[in-house]
Amino acid sequence: MFGRSSSTPPSQVRPLRRRTPGGATAVRATTPAAAAPVTAPPATGEPATGTSTGTSTGTGKGRPTPKRKVAQAANRRPLVPLDRKAAAREERARRRVQRDQEYRAMQSGDERFLPVRDRGPVRRFVRDSIDARRSLGEYFLPVAFVLLIAQTLLAATAPEVVLVLTLVLYLFILGTVVDAIILWRGLKKKLVARFGAEALPRGLTMYAVTRIFQLRRLRMPKPQVQRGQQPR
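^ that's the sequence the OP posted. Answer follows.
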């Protein structure tokens, strides 16, 4: 009446005694309770908690990666604008604003909007060092102009005076050159001691010489230090 399951090993069968109403004892072989089956979670289309996915909370970027074609199309810009007149107007307006900013910076010495050739602490130190010292070079243009006009006016009437004026002009030119060399050599030593030889940009010598031979009131950017004042 009571049989054994074919899948249950004989060693795991144990008899079960039960008393019947007639006083007899019935024996039934039983097996231990099987473990509860492990059921898979319901397929809901959502990843299980704790699984490693590309869009898990806190670990992903929160959006799918765009395809290459989509990214290239977003970065593509037309080589020729659709409205050339509008683009030209915008470009002129942008350049006008930039020129205005550079002009105001040349007057005030604002480093943010200065032209590229005037930016940097090294070039600012060069300008301040030259502006704080009187040099023969800044008087070269007015002195040379006066001597040349005098030579032209006196060439027919006083050639001896013209000869003297020519000699004076040559001596003045020689003096301005010597003064510029002395100024630059002393300035270069200060630059190396303050910024290091590696920090000196190329073309700095010509930048300094050009400013030396300009009138103080015509120098751009405008001088930001007074005569005899130490450079910043």
